[in-house]
Amino acid sequence: MSKVLQMRLVVEAENFDAAVAFYRDALGLPEEAAFEGEGDARVMILDAGRATLEIANPAQKRMIDDVEVGRQVAPHLRVAFEVTDAAEQTTTLTEHGADLVAPPTVTPWNSLNSRLDAPAGLQITLFEELDEAARTQAPIDPS
Q1: pLDDT, the chain, mean
Q2: In the chain, at which residue ranges do the beta strands (DSSP E only) sit?
Q3: Do the Cβ atoms of 27 and 90 come closer than 8 Å?
Q4: What is the pLDDT of residue 132?
Q5: Which of 3, 41, 68, 107 is the 20 to 30 A CA-CA neighbour of 33?
């Protein structure tokens, strides 16, 4: 049985340059590779650190929306990024084109989470683990 070595989330961005500026420059995801092809085809691969696939049932999705936002807003797919300072990064990203859905909020699982509508049509959660012990145990992120 083969082992998965990498997960890539491929996102179509109508405004490629704005999406790159947001995710690479404002969020700080390092550029891993970039390629160009015929017909103005362009792609950039950004390193987002460790990837996980979180599968939540509808009740869990509703609970997370209630905790982070106070109402149901998440689409079928939402991307969560662990950051070192969720409040500061939320401000930076709103200054670079994201729309604030919900400000940084302390969750019952002791993380500081904010919700943003970001370029390329993604809704994102920024989360900062507030419990140092949780960070060293590599928990499953409930967002």
Answers
A1: 91
A2: 31-37, 41-46, 79-82, 99-106, 111-118, 122-129
A3: no
A4: 67
A5: 3
Q: Which residues pair with 139 in a beta bridge?
A: none
Q: What is the pTM of this model?
A: 0.85
Terminal Cα distance for the chain, rounded: 30
Interstrand relation of 31-37 and 41-46 (parallel, antiparallel or unpaired): antiparallel
Which residue stretches of 54-130 are H helix? Answer: 58-68, 86-95
pLDDT above 70 as % of the chain? 92
Altogether, the residues listed in the chain come to a count of 143
* 16-136 to CATH, choices 3.90.76.10, 3.10.180.10, 1.10.10.10, 3.30.420.10: 3.10.180.10
In angstroms, the CA 64 to CA 109 distance is 11
73: tokens are 């807003």
